[in-house]
Amino acid sequence: MPNNKAQVLVARRIFPDIVERLRAHCEVDLHDANEPLPQAELIRRLQGKQGLFASGTERIDATLLDACPDLRAVCLMTVGYNNVDLDACSVRGVLVSNAPDVLTETTADFGFALMMAAARRISESEHYLRRGDWKQWRVDLFAGADVHGATLGILGMGRIGQAIARRGALGFGMPVIYHNRSRLPAEQEAPLAARWVEKDELLRQSDHLVIVLPYTPASHHMVAARELALMKPTATLTNIARGGVVDDAALAEALAAGRIAAAGLDVFEGEPTVHPALLQCANVVLTPHIASASVPTRRAMCNLAVDNLIAFFGGGVPPTALNLPLKPRP
Ligand code: DGY
């Protein structure tokens, strides 16, 4: 009997039981490693494959699509899809799906934690203690900024931005201001008393600025030297969006010069490489792109990518497709 199951490449190591779930529906080729496939190898492994389970690291562009004529569906386990040329996929009739919603609360928890760690100097003081530098208690020892009651500024008020705003407004009594291309409807602003402001106003007024914008050509270096100069010297900046939204070199300079008080960064330009000047700054908390990394959430993200693959190849509607309706791939 001919095997007419779709051939799918899983481009990185994921939870084995979730691979097995996919195997019940598709022929799976698993790249069972944490290192991403080099582009030429990714293209080679995609020959004769109709589906790709991908993350935020595989580059899906016109060159890859033209070199992989059988490819019909690219299903990401991430919500961000700046590594995928969506237009190039759409014109070639290739489905793209991402993984929204399932990571919203987990990522917001982490963004809030990073902001608190920066404000209250948690990493900096832990390093001091581990180095054996703690000789006596002092009134001003690692005295930082308050979080409760301080003004929370959010750049990018999508699902994750709103979840952070809820934590700030309802849990910590923080006045919330935000900047986004479009204002939230009044009924969404009201429970948080959230106020839309111009970007420069957001930078000037925020005590704690959290950046949660998607990375696009328009958001490249949206926070650079000019913007950092507008911020309060007591302010913190937290980036859980994508490297490239913040100019990391300019941020390192601002941190070193005390132009802002502290930063919390989970994403970096050119990650996993981190700008060397940031590594020299004591007043920045650095984490390796783990904002969505709770076990249940990473499982939910993988399962959602698999749901999309199973639905697409089973003739159903992929639950979180980004480019439906799809024209047939020539
Ligand atoms: C996402 O889902 O976009 C997270 O940043 C993990 O890459």
Textual characterization of the structure:
Keywords: NAD, Oxidoreductase. It comes from Paucibacter sediminis. The protein has 330 residues and is of the alpha/beta class. It folds into two domains: 115 residues, NAD(P)-binding Rossmann-like Domain (Rossmann fold, 3-Layer(aba) Sandwich); 183 residues, NAD(P)-binding Rossmann-like Domain (Rossmann fold). Helices cover 35% and strands 13% of the residues. The chain is built from 13 helices and twelve strands. The strands form two sheets. The chain has a seven-stranded parallel sheet with strand order 8-7-6-9-10-11-12, with helices on both faces. A five-stranded parallel sheet has the order 2-1-3-4-5. Helix 12 links the parallel strand 11 and strand 12. It is elongated, with a radius of gyration of 22 Å. The two termini are 27 Å apart. The mean pLDDT is 97. Bound molecules: (2R)-2,3-dihydroxypropanoic acid (DGY). The site of (2R)-2,3-dihydroxypropanoic acid has 6 residues, from loops.
